[in-house]
Amino acid sequence: MAKKRKTFTDEFKQDAVQFLTNHPEMTVIECAETLGVGRSTLERWRADFNRSGLSAVTAHNNDKEEKDLLKENVRLQRELRDSQEALKILKKAISILGN
Questions:
Q1: What is d(CA 46, CA 15) in angstroms, rounded to the nearest whole number?
Q2: What are the tens digits of pLDDT across the range 6-57?
Q3: d(Cα 41, Cα 95) in Å, to the nearest integer?
Q4: Domain boundaries, the chain
Q5: pLDDT, tens digit, 9 for 90 and up, residues 72-89
Q6: Which residues form a coiled coil (predicted)?
Q7: Are 32 and 64 in contact (CB under 8 A)?
Q8: 3-state secondary structure (DSSP) of residue 84
Q9: DSSP code for 26
Q10: Which of 1, 9, 32, 99 could bond 42 through an S-S bridge, CB–CB 3.0 to 4.6 Å?
Q11: Given CA atoms 5, 26, 58, 41 in this order, what sign does their dihedral have?
């Protein structure tokens, strides 16, 4: 059975690199074990941060977050439209039954 791949937030990645930087007495392997990530993953995050700051690590996640926000926006607009339509129907019903 295939293992499910872990995903980490940008904040976690940044904190992991910061942890590695703040603990020079620990090896990369020790830091990785402490954080629960692979050694090569932690080294790649460090290289990405050193190379171009957050931009290399966050580019993919920002695209995903933007798509998620757009989907949520569409869902909320649909929900608002449906609620407004239901409110119109209720107002008509009240005016009919009120007379």
A1: 11
A2: 788 888 888 898 888 888 888 999 999 999 999 999 999 998 888 866 554 5
A3: 65
A4: 10-98
A5: 999 999 999 999 999 999
A6: 66-93
A7: no
A8: helix
A9: S
A10: 32
A11: negative
